[in-house]
Specification:
About 25% of the residues lie in helices and about 35% in strands. It is α+β, with helices and mostly antiparallel strands. A 7-stranded antiparallel beta sheet has the order 1-2-3-4-5-7-6. The longest helix has 10 residues, at about 55-60. The chain starts with a helix and ends in a 5-residue tail after the last strand.
């Protein structure tokens, strides 16, 4: 997505996709649904979407019924999702590559 924005050929830095609006920032993009739920990701050099605990907490707080988990609760949840999630750098996570 960042390469599309930076090329100025395909999409702008702000817009709408279906029921989501988006705002490209620095190394990532913030998506906001029509009900106010926010999903913020950064993109790694290989284009992989990554997130950290701060982004997960922002997502939880933006839900129609807000939830504000502690960092320890988030760490436990992420650990329980291994090997589906991988830590790509300290404190940053992504969905693992699908096995062939």
């Amino acid at each position: 997505m960042l390469s599309l924005v930076r090329s100025h050929r395909i999409i702008s830095r702000r817009g709408e996709i279906g029921t989501y609006s988006y705002q490209v920032h620095g190394a990532g993009c913030l998506f906001i649904s029509d009900n106010g739920t926010e999903i913020d990701v950064d993109f790694a050099a290989d284009g992989r979407e990554t997130f950290d605990f701060w982004r997960l907490r922002c997502y939880g707080r933006s839900l129609p019924e807000p939830h504000d988990p502690t960092e320890q609760n988030l760490r436990t949840a992420v650990e329980s999702l291994k090997p589906l999630l991988i830590e790509v750098r300290p404190g940053w996570f992504s969905v693992a590559e699908a096995s062939a």
